[in-house]
Amino acid sequence: MLLQNRPPRTPVAAPAFAEAEDGPLSQGREFIWNDADFTRIKSLIYKKAGISLHDGKHAMVYSRVSRRLRETGHDSFRSYLDWLEQHDGAEWQEFINALTTNLTAFFREQHHFTILDELLRRERTRDWRIWCSAASTGEEPYSIAMTATEALGAGGSFHIVNSDIDTKVLATAAQGVYKADGVKGLSQERLQRFFMRGKGSNAGLMRVKPELQKHMAFQAVNLIHDLPFREPFDAVFCRNVMIYFDAPTQRQVLERIHRVMKPGGMLFVGHAENFSDARNLFVLRGKTVYERV
Question: Shortest CA distance to 103 belongs to which of 136, 133, 64, 132?
Answer without folding.
Answer: 136
